[in-house]
Structures are given as C-alpha cells and as structure tokens.
Amino acid sequence: MKKRLLFIMTPLLLLTLFFIIPQNFPSLLPVFKITEKPTIISKGTHGVTVTIDLTFGKEDIEGLIKSLETPYPHFFMSNDWIERSDSLIELMKEKNIPIGLLGQDGASYIENPTLFKKEIERFEGSIGRAPQWFRTRDYEFPVELQETAWKYEVNLLGSSKYWIEGETNPKLQQGEILSIPLHQDERIDINQITQLLKSDSYLTIEQNIFGLKIKTKTLPN
What we know:
Layout (H helix, E strand, L loop, with lengths): L1 H19 L19 E2 L7 E6 L4 H9 L6 E4 L1 H5 L2 H10 L3 E4 L5 H4 L3 H13 L5 E3 L7 H9 L3 E3 L3 E2 L14 E6 L7 H10 L5 H6 L11
Parallel strand pairs: 1-6, 2-3, 2-8, 3-4, 4-5, 5-6, 7-8
C-alpha cells in the first residue's frame, strides 16, 4: 500500500512544482544558483524589496528590530557588527528576519584572494550557516569575486535604488531593490525607515525575482 501511494504522490508533486515555478525559469536549480552563471542581481520584476546595510548602531537598531513586522526587510550586516551584537542576532533569528553578509569594498577581494572565504567562515561561525546573499560595501563586484562567490554557493546582490542621506522617502517602481545605509558615516533616520516599511507591502528577494508566494511557519520548541 505504501509503495502504491508513493507512486501516486510522486507525479502529483512534480506536476505541482511544474506549475508553481515560473515557466520562464529553465530548470529546478539548487537554491544558491539563482542564476546559471556568476553574475550580480540588482533588480527584480514582481514588486519592491527593501534591504538594509548595517555596520553601526545598537540601541536604535534594537528598537527597529523589535518593531519590525512581516514582510521584513533583508539585512546585510558586517561580520564586525554581527560579532558584537549576539542578543540582537538571536532576536532576528527568533523573528525569522533575513540576514545576509555585507563585505568590504570590491577591490579588497582582488588584493586579498582569501578574504571572501574568511568572511564566509566568520559569518557561518556566528549565524550557524553560510550566507545565501552577499553584498560589497561599495557595490563593486570584480569578476574574481563573482567567480569565488559562485564557487562557495553564495548569491551576489546589488541594488537599483540607493537611499541617500538627507533625501525624503524614495519613490520606488516595480522590481526595485532599495538599499538603506546604516553606517557611522552615512545613516538614514530610523523613523524614516519605519515610516517607509509601514507605507507599503514589500517582497523578499526571491519573491521579487521569481514572483513566488512563500509562506513560512514558526514551529514551537
């Protein structure tokens, strides 16, 4: 009976996946292979995604994280910030807020070919897994970095819109990936960020790229 049920369910599952995955996507690639070759994604097609580059701040960041409700922005954090913010990282894990790795300027990965590997290992040691998404501080992605990231199964994300300090809320179009800086030397006011996040409904990176509707559920411990 179990074998018969397995034979029945397998084609049904495959048929379901066929209709769920966008038809212009050629095959069921592994999660890390968002593209079929090393490249940088900087724009989607199905909505707007908010990302936050974080290297500095504590109390205001804690307030922001506690106030966040789904859909969450995608945080790109430096290893230094992660390593000095254990309690906030645990809070983000509890809320399932997506965390990516924010690296150094792109040229650093040419000058030091082992830098990317070391950063990935530091991230994995802190978060418990390798990052699915990576971004450089200056949004420069040398070919060498692209090839290395592909080797380590990490996707590279740029942006199509950068929120410059002093500007009012940016006007966003379909497919935009917005970057918001939270650094010591460049910083958007937390209240402005909160207002932006409450003003509209935003998509995850994957939803913006593929148009997927993803439901998540937190199970009790």
